[in-house]
Amino acid sequence: MRPVTDLRHHGDVDARPGLEDFAVNVRGDAPPAWLRSRLVEALDEIGRYPSAEHDAAARRAVAVRHGRSPDEVLVLAGAAEGFALLPALRPRLAALVHPSFTEPEVALRTAGVPVHHVLLAAADGFQLDAAAVPEEADLVVLGNPTNPTSVLHPADTLRALARPGRVLVVDEAFMDAVPGEVESLAGEALDGVLVLRSLTKTWALPGLRAGYALGPPPLLARLAAARPHWPVGTLQLAAVAACAEPLAVAEAEAAARETAEHRAVLAAALAELPGVRVHLPAAGPYLLLRVRDGERVREALRARGIAVRRGDTFPGLTTDHLRVAVRDPRRCEPLLVALRAELEPGRVR
Ligand SMILES: Cc1ncc(COP(=O)(O)O)c(C=O)c1O
Known about the structure:
Layout: H1 4-7, H2 11-14, E1 20-22, H3 33-43, H4 52-66, E2 73-76, H5 79-85, E3 94-98, H6 103-110, E4 115-119, E5 139-143, H7 155-159, E6 167-171, E7 193-198, E8 211-214, H8 217-224, H9 234-243, H10 246-271, E9 277-278, E10 286-290, H11 294-303, E11 306-310, E12 321-325, H12 329-343
Helix pairs in contact: 3-9, 4-9, 5-6
The structure holds pyridoxal-5'-phosphate (PLP).
Pyridoxal-5'-phosphate binds near residues 10, 78 and 211.
């Protein structure tokens, strides 16, 4: 198994300032003006502790957005906090579906929880066969859509993984980038199923740390038992409430549709480059590529001012895997030009 230090590598490390950033999958450079205004308004309230009313308002808004009840909502300091809380469930065996976002593994291994990798293969389209998950796993964690493969698992496959005595964690940090949020379990009250959501990507809020968990109230209570008092601040609560409002949800939906169009354009352009394989179908705001001599290509792109996400720190992937964020076609042009220059015959050693 990889050292935990490798698993802590994320796209933000690849995206050094000054580089054209295809490594981080955040939409845009800053939150929209209306959301910024809501955060500025909330600043008036940071002279006092975050109140139960702020928390209740955020949970109510999220509950309405997903057709759940407020006691099925736990506001988090980002989906990442949800992973960090998982050891509180005292799992005996955690099955982690890979390649996938690695923070759940970091949290579990650091806490001494035995971890089993369910490795999905490119040859199978990184599709999940529920039978590959060990029966004895009392915690199963996967992403939908999955980072970095961009695979969207069918909701039925995920429902089939739920069992009495097991907690199934579905990381839906990118689900709001999927038009119609098809295959989401966020709106379903299922025993033992915990859905994690993030405001980070769609709303360009990585620095705020805001997200939430949806799940059965007793499960949320177990997760939250050892959290500090006031675990999330007033600004985070304001953002969670604001981004759950109908206008925000409609804006996210429009952005998801636009991203799907941009992704199709980028995938087609990449597929025309010599020696690039694009993993399709893709549902997230990013594409997983395979190129020969990937480490050289990544370094060469960086020298040309372009950051892409290395793939080899994801269990199951290699240095030939690269992940690129979907941007609008105009912004993708430098990536395509640089890749073409690096991949033309004679350059690949
Ligand atoms: C798949 C996935 N899940 C969760 C997270 C963490 O999200 P947050 O910023 O809400 O903690 C990330 C961040 O990169 C991610 O890629």
